[in-house]
Amino acid sequence: MKNLLLLLTLLAFIAAPLSLATGAQAASQSNSSSSKSQASSAKAKNVAAKNKKKSKKKSAAKKKTSKSVKKSGAKATRVSLAPPVEPALRAMRGLGAETLLGEELALNSSAALVFDQATGAALYAKNIDVPTSIASITKLMTAMVTLDAGLSMSEEIQVDKDDVDRLKGTGSRIALGTRLTREELLHLALIASENRAAAALSRAYPGGRGAFITAMNRKAREIGMRDSRFVDSTGLNSGNSSTAADLAKLVDAAYRYPLIREISTTGSYDVTVPGTRVVKVKENGKVRKVYRSVQKHLAFTNTNSLTRNQEWEIGVSKTGYINEAGHCLVMQTRIADQPVIIVLLDSVGKWGRIGDAQRIRKWLEQETSVAIHKTPRTST
Known about the structure:
alpha+beta, Beta-lactamase, two-stranded antiparallel sheet, 9 helices, 12 strands, 43% helix, 22% strand, globular
């Protein structure tokens, strides 16, 4: 029994260090694991802190970049949307309390507008926003589009069958086959309102008539003619429509072309064209006809008789007439030392528009308060 107890005590003595070692190893492993866990946690915290710092830096950089981009974008937007140099009446004012309205001048025209070109103030207005056919007033737009293209004014263009008016059946003094320079055609279109001249100008445009009509409507938008439409270069088509308000912008824009000012206010114009002359020749007692080539001189007069009146100082002029439009007249002129634009549409009778222009002039010269109108212009 003693021996058994001694053996058990010995075994217990031997097992104790092993148990302690195992416990120590387990504790060590546990401590090591805890250490590693703590180290890993600390490392994770450090990484998170670094990432947070980096994120903040990136966020700050991003905000800075965003601000920079926005600033740059705003600058670019300001540049791209900066209004180009445009006609003064693009920013014309609306009707004011000082504007004379309706029938107060007893004009024959169904629609009329008198504009102070210097201030953008409407001095007289009657049905100015009513769309109507504009007939040959169209030719002012035809002239601007032609000049904008930068084409040679000395280039000869032959008038052919495609330039004949088959819509209204109007005649022309320009015979088919006649060769005229682009400048001569421009003269005839603006001074004598020659339809074949205007038709030839659009046909000889790069891309043809389709491209020309597109350019006309694009030009209209550029100068602020929002209620206007063009379908041909002559004005014979009643689809060419506008308002008195828009036509004031057209006249103002045309006034900025020196050649249009010069041509449209010329009282008369001559061109030399080839022609034939029939003479009778007597030979051997018989008379026969002989056709000889000659140079013919054709004289054209301005359709606006006021251009030949020394009392008028006119800067731009154009008349128009078809049944749908009535008798029309637009002008830039100076009255009482004041630059004004006059638009008269659908007037009664051939001389009604001239009478209206004379009445307007008399009114402006008598109304001193109107003639020296200095109201500042504001955008609308």
